[in-house]
Design a protein that fits this description.
Layout: H1 9-22, H2 33-40, H3 44-56, E1 60-63, E2 67-70, E3 78-79, H4 90-96, E4 101-112, H5 115-121, E5 128-138, E6 141-151, H6 168-176, E7 182-191, H7 194-200, E8 207-216, E9 222-230, E10 236-237
Helix pairs in contact: 1-3
Length: 247
């Protein structure tokens, strides 16, 4: 019996299987396909789609002549944005750790502000924003797709700037003396759309970590809103909390 999960049936099977295999010892063999199909009440095609996602995410391994067995996803990098002593973006923090950060700009344009972003940035619905979408990699492995939105009136030059390397936050400080003082971060879970799956080299529908960040100045005025959609098999999110000005 599969617990109800919204979306296609294979996603429900995959989520149930994911919980199941995380409780099993590493190298445990899964039951044969016919047994699992009968257990979950699904076709072989549906079961294979569910198992494909877990293989892509590093929870399972298929081996010819042996079957499918449990493994453990490798957490190879931490996704870090430091907000304790300074606002430092992914590029700066990861580079300081010695990682090779790659960036491919996918979208860079001025657009009418989306409704959800207008709320985060405190903008009128008629305002324009600079939309920046980037594919970020670490040591050659796709890590996440980052979407950033900046008020076009505040940062008009951002639509022409070169963001194929370096930090967006450093650019805003350097070119606009931006007072990046505080940040609010929200983390939730999403699934990879087909276009994202191609970029991140995962199966469509695979789970993604979603990190939403709104950066404000010292007076509390919002300056930048971003959300990043991360592969959980190659990244983890770390928070550092400072109380009373002490790390």
């Amino acid at each position: 019996m599969v617990s109800p999960v919204s979306g296609p049936k294979y996603l429900a099977v995959r989520e149930h299987l994911r919980r199941r295999v995380t409780a099993l010892p590493e190298l445990t063999l899964l039951p044969p396909e016919p047994v699992l199909c009968a257990e979950y009440g699904v076709s072989r095609i549906t079961l294979r789609r569910a198992v494909d996602g877990l293989v892509a995410d590093g929870h399972l391994v298929r081996e010819q002549g042996r079957g499918t067995y449990v493994t453990r996803p490798a957490i190879r990098h931490e996704y870090r944005e430091s907000f304790v002593h300074r606002i430092a973006g992914f590029n700066s923090v990861m580079s300081e750790q010695g990682a090779q950060v790659g960036t491919k700009v996918l979208t860079q344009r001025v657009v009418p502000v989306p409704a959800s972003v207008a709320v985060e940035l405190g903008l009128e619905g008629t305002a324009d924003v600079v939309e920046l979408e980037r594919l970020r990699s670490v040591d050659g492995e796709p890590n996440h797709v980052a979407h950033s939105f900046l008020p076009a009136l505040l940062y008009p030059g951002a639509v022409e700037a070169d963001f194929s390397e370096g930090s967006l936050y450093d650019y805003l400080r350097r070119e606009y003396q931006a007072d990046l003082a505080t940040a609010r971060i929200v983390v939730d879970v999403g699934t990879a759309a087909p276009d994202e799956a191609d970029l991140l080299r995962v199966v469509a529908g695979s789970p993604l970590l979603v990190v939403r960040t709104t950066v404000r100045d010292s007076s509390g005025h919002p300056l930048v809103h971003s959300y990043s959609r991360l592969r959980p098999d190659v990244s983890q999110v770390e928070f550092e909390v400072s109380v009373g000005g002490r790390a």
